[in-house]
Design goal:
- The complex is a heterodimer of chains A (771) and B (481).
- By secondary structure, chain A is α+β, with helices and mostly antiparallel strands.
- Chain A is 28% helix and 24% strand.
- In chain A, the strands form 7 sheets. In chain A, strands 3-5-1-12-9-10-11-20 form an 8-stranded mixed sheet, sandwiched between helices.
- The radius of gyration of chain A is 27 Å and the shape is globular.
- By secondary structure, chain B is an alpha+beta fold.
- Chain B is 30% helix and 22% strand.
- Chain B has helices at residues 25-30, 99-106, 116-129, 135-141, 153-162, 174-180, 201-210, 223-228, 264-272, 278-283, 288-291, 296-301, 310-315, 333-336, 412-418, 425-434, 449-468, 476-479, and strands spanning 5-9, 12-16, 51-57, 63-69, 82-84, 186-190, 193-197, 215-217, 236-239, 249-251, 255-259, 319-324, 327-332, 337-339, 342-343, 350-357, 363-370, 381-390, 393-402, 409-410.
- In chain B, the strands form 5 sheets. Chain B has a 5-stranded mixed sheet. A 5-stranded antiparallel sheet of chain B has the order 10-11-16-12-13. Chain B has a 4-stranded mixed sheet with strand order 6-7-9-8, covered by helices on one side.
- Classes of the chains: A alpha+beta (771), B alpha+beta (481).
- Chains A and B meet through helix 1, strand 27, strand 28, helix 16 and strand 29 of A and helix 2, helix 3, helix 5, helix 17 and helix 18 of B.
């Protein structure tokens, strides 16, 4: 592997996750492990059995059994009955009408979860069932949306489609995905004096939880403190979805005057919280004889569920990624944000990007199959102009210049390292000899836009304290969900001070230390918080440098060096802690906050033009699969990944994100099937029925490498964001399955996502298996 | 007067009274025992975040650790065991990390860390029993552990790396376990619930005669979910796992006798001898943790239409022995299943053993499982096939399916199309066509009716290929490395 790490004594080092020794010994504390205050009560929420119904009456008189301390319905909320992140519409408790099966109707706080559950089920709720909208097609028929339809376009798509030499139409269904973080949603709320509330919340967005607790309790934000040390996985599922859990706990805590823990068990978690959006795609594409796209007209029907939640931004991102790596001279991407009587779909790693990217990859795959050309060649002719060789094919359908495109180079290098061309021949030979088992392969690229597309959110704060003994405490607005954010940001701060990693201690994210933070989302954690923490550390370092320079005299502060645990000013040198102590005695401030906002970005939503992204992250993968034409079962034989993280701050953590993202993306497109019954009740709400990949499902031969490059933009240590982009590397698994089906004799297979064994067998349509 | 529940937990003898008999080990660990290292991810034995090691004196007289899911193990069913949780491992290494823990750190095998204790315990357990475990063995050992962050590669690396570090075993305290073993029925009661663990079939028959409505508990891999998922009240539980006579596997001249309380793991080796293909199926039945607790007897007795035991056992003409205070009766396994969730088991009766006759060398046999995911998934379709061929003609055919009807069921029309015919493409085609009359499967979250029907037929085709066309490769999992 090329050495493309951002190497200093502390950064660029493949050091273990800061909590790894705690993880492996069971001593890492998650919210459910926190010793509960004396008298802590447990909450349970009664869920709607109907996808859509009018609530005729709610009788809670039978709920007050021994051990019950409070029963709450919508009318008992002192503030606003809404935990929506942006647009209104996510009630804490249903009021008059339920809009999905699983919606919370009332809550009970009791001495034990058993009592709370029993009591809640003693409530008598009368419903009048109403017709439910359960898919996007019905929503389109009834024109029911959670946001306005939106269009991004460039050129004259209609005219170009008329004049193009080749034209294809097609469609694709893309399924949703449950986050399946191993730690379910949980909050522990404790009331304090004078109307204050403290809440431990397993959330990616402590500031929003703080704000929403204040809103439902009708108190100012400064009365609420939210903390999170770590989550047992997030993946976007705890960006907006944690708020309901925390607010129920806080409401019951306020009402009872006691601490309340609200933990969803797995089934309730999967029924009550949102998922990745399912999309229905229709397209018309025009192209030339080489498969070069001339015009694309794509329709995206987005299954948003019963409220807006973050759906408008997610649907936008699906549109932003409808080009992936490909220049679209004429394009019109239309998006409808469909209302359905299902749980409101939400953020999930990639935030709509994966669906948009899969759609265009499917289109390109169709073009290649239609023309009988190699799919990798069709991809290449469509790539944006490379960085350094930009001509006329370097602007997106939303008007952003693609200045940093390196995908062709990644494709070349990955094609060579994976032996792609030779393996095509091997596959042909294998398939010629085998009638039941067939192999397929696909190489797919990723270009993912980095920044919150709502420009305002691209800001972050950090707080750094240096104590008299030279140890450093670090806080920032980002949250740790396993992605290694705290490790990377600690590495950055240790590097600024030139001290060993273990001299920096990061503490729980806390709204009273860094206020008004954005969610840890959009892959932005290190970009934003790393820069903010770096700035805070530099402020203190600047003061120390100035102080050291004064001590020596005749030396400029910028010439003072911080390295190897020592501070050196000309001929004089101190141990870091000595200088710190000296500075303290000379009344130098040893605490600072830092702030960062992403430069260059802007977005004109009305015109659908701008530069929503600071930069793009790139990558590519080659997957080879084998299918069984009798059952549709399959196995990933091999996957090769080459991914661009700029200069890596921590290659072990980056590779962990890449491999984990790939497997999660492959899971989304293969075995992870969400299944609702005809009445709109989710029936895959536990791991017994919802199947994420296991250790045996990962590629038998799995090779991951980091691309040797650096971020063209000024990011922290020239690194690139890595949280979301690798998920889309999993698209190659899906298209390899489609390739295997094609190689069994189906010219243009109708394989939709997820490609369960059943879906593969259906796509085979009787082909293969001739004996 | 209630007995105390006694077990060794992390080296300390625990004596428990007053807690509900339906409390799970996980609830006990995280609650009264204040040991929060073990996590709850699903409370149904499907994610492995709660994996612990548990030892008992086994049928062969030796005690060994096996990995189990603490989330569905009912506390009194652990009476007489030794349990080790993640919180205890460092006690054997002077406070340093255990080699498996160290290897997990070195290989970057934790990200969010929530599944990690379960992986640590599953791998520690495997390497203790199988120090040279290869990747496939480790994959089997962690098939019941889900990780959503890493993509597993570093976890497999860690298992390999741990094998290179100085070995640290967790000792079994056999002497204490011998002392904890009960020689008469263990009775545990609280004010509103009773738990009985008889030690002989006669005691079991008596207690069932006394409490005909009692819930029978064996490995708990199903009954545990009645508690954690369906929140059922189980006022009287009778546990079969302490009855030595029901924990025996005997090979006789006539075949194999498997006691109803023998775990899948204990029955594994003996059953694998019953026919090629059996091993593939057994590896995919639940996970290692489930197979270490669950029993073949329970798989049959609960009458599930999607259990993986009955189809191959029916194809092998297994019989079962039912016993009660009134006596003993023996019947073919297939007669036991009457209708959906309705079995031929009278009040007071229990399943004593399963008898699997020796298979004639001339019998063609195979068993297959198809599910969305290879590991720990419930079958969309499970098939057990046996053909007896005499002078080129099919004399008898047993095509047995799970997932195709309300009970495990034979494909009678397809069988009839085969009997009296040679085993050829023509008879295969006729049987596949006839199978349309055998089943009207349901559509649910596991598979559609159409898929089940297609796969049921195609599995018979696979059987034909494998028995007549040895040059043709079938079964993607066998050939995909």
């Amino acid at each position: 592997m090329p050495d493309n790490t951002a190497k200093t004594p502390v950064t660029g080092v493949a050091r273990p996750h800061e909590s790894a020794p705690l993880h492996v010994s069971g001593t890492a504390v998650y919210t459910d492990d926190i010793a509960a205050p004396a008298g802590c009560l447990h909450a349970y929420v009664l869920k709607s059995p109907h996808a859509h119904a009018r609530i005729l009456s709610v009788d809670i008189s039978a709920c007050h059994i021994a051990g019950v301390y409070a029963v709450m319905t919508a009318k008992d909320i002192p503030g606003v009955n809404d935990v929506a992140p942006v647009f209104a519409g996510d009630p804490v408790f249903a009021d008059g009408e339920v809009l999905y099966a699983g919606q919370s109707v009332l809550a009970v706080a009791a001495e034990s979860i058993d009592i709370a559950r029993r009591a809640a089920h003693l409530a008598k709720v009368e419903y009048e069932a109403l017709p439910a909208i359960l898919d996007v097609h019905e929503a389109m028929k009834q024109q029911k949306f959670v946001g306005d339809p939106y269009v991004m376009q460039t050129g004259d798509t209609d005219a170009a489609l008329k004049s193009t030499p080749h034209k294809l139409s097609g469609m694709l269904d893309i399924g949703g995905q449950d986050h399946f973080y191993l730690e379910g949603q949980i909050a522990l709320a404790t009331p304090h004096e004078n109307g204050e509330m403290h809440c431990w919340s397993s959330t990616q967005h402590p500031s929003e939880v703080q704000h929403l607790i204040a809103k439902v309790l009708a108190i100012p934000d400064h009365n609420v403190t939210v903390e999170v040390r770590r989550m047992g996985g997030g993946f976007g599922g705890k960006e907006s979805q944690a708020s309901l859990i925390a607010c129920v706990a806080a409401l019951l805590a306020r009402k009872t005057g006691r601490a309340v823990k609200f933990r969803l068990d797995r089934d309730d978690d999967m029924m009550m919280t949102g998922k990745r959006h399912a999309l229905h795609i229709k397209y018309d594409v025009g192209f030339d004889a080489q498969g070069r796209i001339q015009a694309l007209d794509m329709l995206q029907l987005v299954d948003c569920g019963m409220s807006a939640d973050l759906s408008n931004a997610i649907a936008d991102r699906a549109m932003f990624h409808a080009d992936n790596c490909y220049y679209l001279p004429h394009a019109r991407i239309r998006s409808y944000r469909c209302f359905t009587h299902k749980v409101s779909n939400t953020a999930f790693r990639g935030f709509g990007g994966p669906q948009g990217m899969l759609a265009i990859e499917y289109v390109v795959d169709d073009i290649a199959r239609h023309l009988g050309l190699p799919a990798d060649a069709v991809r290449r002719v469509n790539f944006y102009d490379a960085m350094g060789a930009r001509k006329d094919r370097a602007v997106t359908h939303y008007g952003m210049d693609v200045e940093d495109c390196i995908i062709a180079d990644i494709f070349d290098k990955l094609g060579a390292s994976s032996d792609y061309q030779k393996r095509l021949a091997d596959i042909d030979a294998f398939n010629a000899e085998n009638c039941i088992l067939k192999r397929g392969i696909a190489m797919t690229p990723v270009k993912f836009g980095i920044s919150f597309t709502l420009t305002m959110l691209n800001q972050a704060g950090a707080l750094v304290h240096v104590y008299k003994d030279g140890s450093v405490q670090l806080n920032h607005g980002g949250t740790e969900m396993g992605q290694g954010l705290h490790t990377k940001v600690s590495q950055v701060v240790a590097d600024v001070f030139g001290i060993p990693f273990d001299r920096v201690r990061i503490t729980a994210t806390n709204t009273s230390k860094v206020p008004n933070t954005s969610a840890t989302a959009a892959s932005s954690g290190t970009d934003l918080n790393g820069k903010a923490a770096e700035a805070a550390a530099h402020t203190i370092r600047g003061r120390l440098a100035e102080f050291a320079a004064q001590q020596v005299g005749g030396i400029a502060p910028q010439d003072v060096t911080f390295a190897d645990g020592r501070v050196t000013a000309g001929t004089q040198s101190w141990a870091f802690k000595e200088l710190v102590n000296l500075a303290y005695m000379n009344r130098i401030s040893l605490s600072a906050n830092g702030f960062y906002k992403t430069p260059k970005i802007f977005w004109d939503r009305a015109a659908a033009k701008g530069r929503p992204f600071f930069y793009f992250a790139y990558g590519a993968s080659v997957s080879e699969v084998m299918i069984d034409t009798l059952t549709g079962e399959y196995k990933i034989l091999r996957a090769d990944i080459l991914h661009d993280v700029g200069r890596s701050i921590n290659p072990a953590i980056d590779i962990g994100q890449i491999e984990g993202g790939f497997v999660q993306g492959a899971g989304w497109l293969t075995s992870e099937e969400l299944w609702w019954d005809a009445k709109g009740a989710l029936k895959t709400h536990a791991p017994s029925t919802y199947k994420i990949p296991t250790a045996r499902d990962v590629p038998t031969d799995f090779r991951t490498a980091l691309y040797d490059g650096e971020n063209a933009e000024d990011t922290v240590y020239k690194s690139k964001a890595v949280g979301e982009p690798p998920l889309m590397l999993g698209i190659s698994v899906f298209l390899a399955l489609r390739d295997a089906v094609a190689r069994a004799g189906v010219k243009v297979p109708k394989l939709f996502a997820p490609a369960t064994p059943e879906a593969v067998l259906r796509a085979l349509d009787g082909h293969g298996g001739d004996i | 007067m209630s007995d105390l529940i006694r077990f060794i937990l992390n080296g300390r003898l625990c004596e428990i009274s007053g807690l509900p008999p339906t409390m799970t080990l996980l609830q006990y660990l995280r609650g009264p025992a204040q040991l929060c290292g073990t996590k709850e991810g699903c409370a149904e034995g499907d994610c492995g975040a709660c994996t612990v090691m548990a030892a008992r004196i086994e049928a062969d007289g030796a005690a060994r650790y096996r990995s189990i899911n603490a989330c569905i193990a009912l506390l009194p069913s652990l009476d007489g065991r030794q349990i080790v949780t993640v919180d205890h491992l460092r006690d054997f290494t002077g406070g340093h990390l255990h080699p498996v823990q160290q290897a997990m750190v070195d290989c970057h095998a934790s990200q969010c860390g929530f599944c990690t204790p379960g992986f640590v315990m599953a791998i520690t357990n495997e390497l203790q029993n199988n120090p040279d475990a290869d990747d496939a063995a480790v994959q089997d050992a962690i098939a019941g552990n889900l990780c959503r962050c890493t993509g597993y590669r570093p976890i497999l690396d860690a298992a390999r790396r741990a094998q290179t570090l100085p070995r640290v075993d967790i000792p079994v305290d056999s002497d204490t376990l011998q002392g904890l073993a009960r020689d008469k029925m263990f009775s545990y009661e609280t004010s509103d619930a009773k738990f009985f663990a008889p030690v002989t079939p006669d005691e079991l028959a008596q207690v069932l005669a006394q409490y005909p409505d009692a819930y029978m508990l064996s490995g708990g891999t199903d009954v545990g979910l009645w508690v954690t998922k369906f929140h059922m009240d189980l006022p009287v539980i009778v546990y079969t796992g302490n009855i030595a006579a029901l924990r025996d596997v005997r090979e006789t001249d006539a075949g194999l006798e498997i006691g109803a309380a023998v775990t899948y793991s204990e029955a594994f080796a003996a059953l694998a001898k019953q026919g090629a293909g059996m091993e593939d199926l057994l590896r995919r039945l639940g996970s290692a943790h489930i197979r270490n607790a669950g029993t073949l007897g329970g798989n049959i007795a609960n009458g599930s239409p999607i259990g993986d035991g009955p189809p191959p056992l029916m194809a092998l003409q297994a019989e079962i022995v039912l016993r009660s205070a009134a006596g003993v009766r023996r019947l073919p396994l297939e007669k036991f299943f009457i209708a959906y969730k309705k079995q031929d088991r009278k009040a007071g009766e229990f399943l004593e053993k399963i008898i699997v006759p020796k298979r004639a060398d001339s019998t063609l046999f195979a068993t297959y499982k198809v599910s969305k995911r290879f590991d720990q998934d419930i079958s969309a379709v499970c098939a057990g096939f046996a053909l007896e061929i005499d002078e080129g003609m099919i004399r008898a055919a047993r095509l047995c399916y799970g997932g195709m009807a309300g009970t495990p069921k034979r494909a009678g029309h397809a069988e009839a199309a085969l009997v009296g015919q040679p085993w050829t493409r023509d008879s295969l085609a006729a049987a596949m066509t006839a199978m349309d009359q055998d089943f009207t499967p349901m559509s649910d979250m596991r598979a559609s009716a159409e898929y089940r029907q297609s796969v049921a037929k195609n599995l018979l085709k696979r059987f034909f290929i494998e028995t007549t066309m040895p040059q043709v490769k079938t079964g993607v999992y066998r050939h995909a490395g």
